[in-house]
TrEMBL record:
This is Tetratricopeptide repeat protein. InterPro entries: TPR-like_helical_dom_sf. Gene3D superfamilies: Tetratricopeptide repeat domain. Signal peptide: none annotated. It comes from Streptomyces aquilus. SUPFAM superfamilies: TPR-like.
């Protein structure tokens, strides 16, 4: 049985904030508490309040502010000798690094966070940090290496009745099944994630689960209208909480659905919108995936093959530098689909 979802990253004086609190509200409350703690010379409270500030900035796509905030939180936690707060700051920094495409740095920071969490006796930050490591491996396409870790973390979350972490693990496992073509299994897992999130009032997790369901409904069933309806419901949740990153991925998925339906002009417009959103928040993975969809849409609408070849060749190199092997495979399939292997631009 799961209880109501909670946000363990909102700590100290901010524990009254909900997992569904608007990020602008979180940022305002966190900034106010941070200033008060700094003025009072309370390093531990400054670290805890600074964590919420860092996370709000990150989820709003404000990369520079998020980077400064998590580092300041870590320094305050270290000054207070608070291992748990140090671990949470490193978790935030590692999550930001993954968002920015710095995957090696993400693994290092998340590994340190898990270690400090264990030393400090904070099982929640340890679990979140291991989850971050699992997600980093998953987006790289290293499913064999992280699949067992995802399953382990799901079992732990179920045992503790922690809804938010259960939803995250279900969605991660579902995505791996989706990417390997096991659509029915993926659908069932996304559906369970959506149900758990809804019962626990986890709007963020629910929005991501709906996005996953829309993807399966589109690619497996070819049901465009149902997929778009699911995405509209998810988008409403994203907007209510000001989830910039989730909203950008929602728009990209909407474009994917339209592309699969042969509605290439509409898809192109949405890929362009998502691309601008990803660039505004310095999210290279999302940017590259939106570029891929945009290149394919333009090719379908009559773009010169040489230009398509150049675009796809550049994308393949970009994704290689980030370390996203699964996404590289998607580019290679697009090159084959349009008959524009990389050699064509040389």
């Amino acid at each position: 049985m799961y209880g109501k979802a909670f946000a363990p990253e909102y700590q100290g004086a901010l524990t009254t904030l909900s997992v569904n609190s608007s990020l602008t509200d979180v940022l305002a409350a966190g900034t106010e508490q941070l200033r008060a703690a700094e003025q009072a010379g309370k390093s531990a409270e400054a670290a805890r309040s600074g964590l919420a500030v860092a996370e709000a900035h990150r989820r709003l796509g404000r990369v520079g502010e998020a980077d400064r905030a998590w580092k300041a939180s870590y320094r305050a936690a270290r000054a207070a000798g608070d291992l748990g707060a140090m671990a949470w700051a490193l978790w935030s920094g590692g999550t930001l690094a993954r968002q920015r495409g710095a995957l090696a740095l993400a693994r290092r920071l998340l590994g340190l966070a898990a270690e400090l969490g264990e030393r400090g006796g904070d099982i929640v930050v340890r679990g979140y940090s291991l989850a971050g490591l699992a997600e980093t491996g998953r987006i790289q396409g290293d499913y064999e290496a992280v699949g067992r870790l995802h399953e382990q973390l799901l079992a732990e979350a179920r045992r503790r009745g922690e809804a938010r972490h259960t939803v995250w693990a279900l969605e991660g496992i579902a995505q791996m099944h989706r990417n390997t073509g096991a659509y029915d299994t993926a659908f069932a897992l996304f559906e369970e994630a959506a149900e758990v999130a809804a019962r626990a009032d986890d709007r963020r997790g629910h929005a991501w689960a709906l996005r996953g369901l829309a993807d399966i409904v589109s690619v497996r069933d070819g049901d465009v209208e149902r997929a778009l309806t699911l995405l509209s419901e998810a988008e409403a949740g994203c907007r209510a909480m000001n989830l910039s990153g989730a909203l950008a991925y929602n728009h990209k998925m909407r474009a994917n659905v339209l592309y699969r339906a042969g509605r290439y002009a509409e898809a192109r417009e949405l890929y362009e919108e998502a691309l601008a959103e990803f660039r505004a928040m310095s999210e290279p993975r999302g940017e590259a995936l939106a570029r891929l969809g945009l290149a394919k849409s333009r090719a379908q609408l009559g773009r010169a093959p040489r230009e398509t070849a150049a675009e796809l060749a550049d994308l393949y190199e970009v994704l290689g530098r980030i370390g996203l092997r699964h996404a590289q495979e998607m580019v290679a399939r697009a090159q084959t689909e349009f008959g524009v292997r990389a050699e064509a631009v040389r």
